[in-house]
Every structure is written in structure tokens, then in C-alpha cells.
Amino acid sequence: MTDADPRKSKQDGTVGRTLAVLDLIAEFGRPVRFSELLPKAGLPKATLFRFIQSLTNQGMLSYDEDRQTYAPGLRLVRLAHAAWSQSSLAPIAAPHLDALSAATGETIHLAQLDQGMVLYVDKRNAKRPVEMFSQSGKIGPAYCTGVGKAMLAHLPEDKLAAAISRQSFHRFTANTLTTDLKLRAELANIRARGFAWDDEEHEMGIRCIAAPILSSASRIIGALSITTADALDRARLEAYAPLLRETAAKIADAANAWRFPEQK
Q: φ and ψ at 97, to 5 degrees?
């Protein structure tokens, strides 16, 4: 089950379960039929139908009568635009990402933490782009990505424990950290050296170096990474560490006057 599972939202009542249905529909990445949702929602048929009808009536979902499918509605586009401009680091970080991309020629990622997971909010492609999982708007695991570990390493203990409890610890590659203890040991190393590695832990052939973006109160507000598909060239990536940290600090300074939601 994912965090979108409506059965996990009972403590938030009808609103929580309705939004979990919306999350579930969005996770399909395509228009979806009611019959496809029913076995995954874990809700009575009548309850699921009522939630979907409410979301459709409110413009949060759109319904295609010809195909009999549901998809995220245009009202979400307006909300997403507001969230992007008010809560995302992307708008103020953009010029700094551009400069880092120009200086390195490598893939640049900007991410924030969302419910213990990595939300990629912006990206700059390398001069020679390489296909990889991360794209703006995608959600990824925190325990095996550079940006994810950089952010986890700077969470206070209560929030760290909550975030770790959400990790699947699925083994993506032979290098993936698959236990709480191994992850915590790595997070201690990250705090000591000031940056994180993804050493082919999420995708084979993909390596990155990442730095946290910390507010003036030392609260984690995001992370920045430089990624390469040249997995053998760790030394070249490590040479970028000072520039990476300097860029993260500039983004933090630019964000100082902003008010970001608490990371969970």
C-alpha cells in the first residue's frame, strides 16, 4: 500500500479519505476506470463512488463519458500553479540552477521532502542528456537518493523517525541501503562531511552528489544535486562539492524571506 491508500486516512475523516482517492487516481499516470480503482482503494463500492462523484463535482476530477474514465481535473492545475509559486523552491532557485548547470554541464536536480519522500521540483539536463528516473513533479524514495539522504540527514529526530518509517527499503541495486541502521549510519556520515552520495543506489550507472538547502534556522527546506551517468568518475563529481554547497547556500539566502511549509 502507498501513502495514498484511503484506508490509512481514517484519522482525517472523510476529507482525508477523499483526498487519498484523488492521490490514488493521480498515481495511475493515465485516465482510469472505476473498475480499476475499486480493488486498490480498499473501500466499499458505494463509498468510493460517492468520493469520486464529490471530486468530480468540485472539478478536482474530470470524467470522460465516452471512455468512462477519470483523470485529475483542471481545478488541480490552478492549485498546482499556486503551490508552485508559493511553496516550491523552484522559482527562486531557477537562476542558481542555471548557473550550476552552465558551470558543470551535468544534470542538476532540485528537490524537497514530501511525507518522507523526495519530490523533484526542478531539473536541468546535462549537455549530453541521459534517461533517468528523476523528472520534475516525480516522487522518489529518500533512503537511496542523494537529495533524499541529504534532507533526511538534517531532520530533527522526531521527524527523521517518522520519515524513516515511510521508507520501503526496497533493494534497487546491489548498493542500496536496505535497513534503518545502515541508513542512520550513512546519515551521520553525511552530516559530518556536508554532502551526500547516491553511489548507484537507486539506478545502476547513475551517481550523484547532493547538498542540503538549510534555512537560516538550520531547518531543511530542500536539496540540490549534480548527477552523472559516468559512474566511474566519482572524483570528478566530488570536485564539484564546494560549488554545489555554495549554490545551495545561495538558494537558502534567496529563500530566507520566504515561508515554507514544515517538512514531514
A: -65, -40
